[in-house]
UniProtKB/TrEMBL annotation:
Name by which UniProt lists this protein: Polysaccharide biosynthesis domain-containing protein
Recorded GO CC terms: cytoplasm
Record domain Polysaccharide biosynthesis: where: 29-153
Superkingdom field: Eukaryota
Coiled-coil portions: none
InterPro entries recorded: PBDC1-like_dom_sf, PBDC1_metazoa/fungi, Polysacc_synth_dom
Length: 168
């Protein structure tokens, strides 16, 4: 991504606001989306490391997203997720109508967003999957409200402070 350069980043940033149908498989646009998803993941993880997740507000629609998620997916285990639970044909038939409920409600509801498969781990190649933003919200809101993300602050906040050069 470093090979894109500052001018490429600026051009790419304006491209990301255009409708996806205008692009084929443009590698510059794909790199920009990947960078944006990674940046979002890094910011979110840093917040989890420093704030009690039960108090996090991700959108103005958190309660509606969480309530509908638990109504439609009452037994969905959010701690450890498999790719099948999100991307199998059976899962897609359940997720698609859920996601569409938020089409005109949640901004960028369909943006590609990285989700941790195991809520006790960091974002990594092995522990991340690309999902829609509304799936990310639904699962992370459940993790936050149900106490599943509590371990992150305890487990990683000291490491984050030390990486930044601060003392814990």
């Amino acid at each position: 991504m470093d090979s894109i350069g500052a001018e490429g980043l600026l051009a790419g940033a304006s491209l990301l606001s255009r409708p996806a149908e205008e692009f084929g498989n443009d590698p510059t646009v794909e790199a920009m989306w990947a960078m944006k998803a990674m940046e979002h993941a890094e910011i979110y993880f840093n917040i989890l490391c420093s704030v009690d997740p039960k108090f996090l507000k991700l959108t103005p629609h958190d309660q509606g997203i969480y309530s509908l998620f638990r109504e439609r997916f009452p037994d969905f285990e959010v701690s450890k997720i498999t790719e099948d639970a999100l991307k199998s044909e059976e899962a897609k038939t359940k997720w698609r109508p859920f996601c569409e409920e938020f089409k005109n409600v949640v901004e960028d509801y369909s943006f590609g967003t990285l989700l941790r498969l195991d809520c006790e781990g960091e974002y990594s190649e092995e522990n991340s999957i690309l999902v829609t933003r509304i799936q990310f919200y639904a699962i992370e809101l459940a993790r936050n409200k149900e106490g599943k993300n509590d371990v992150i602050r305890k487990k990683f906040s000291a490491n984050r402070k030390n990486k930044d050069g601060n003392h814990s």
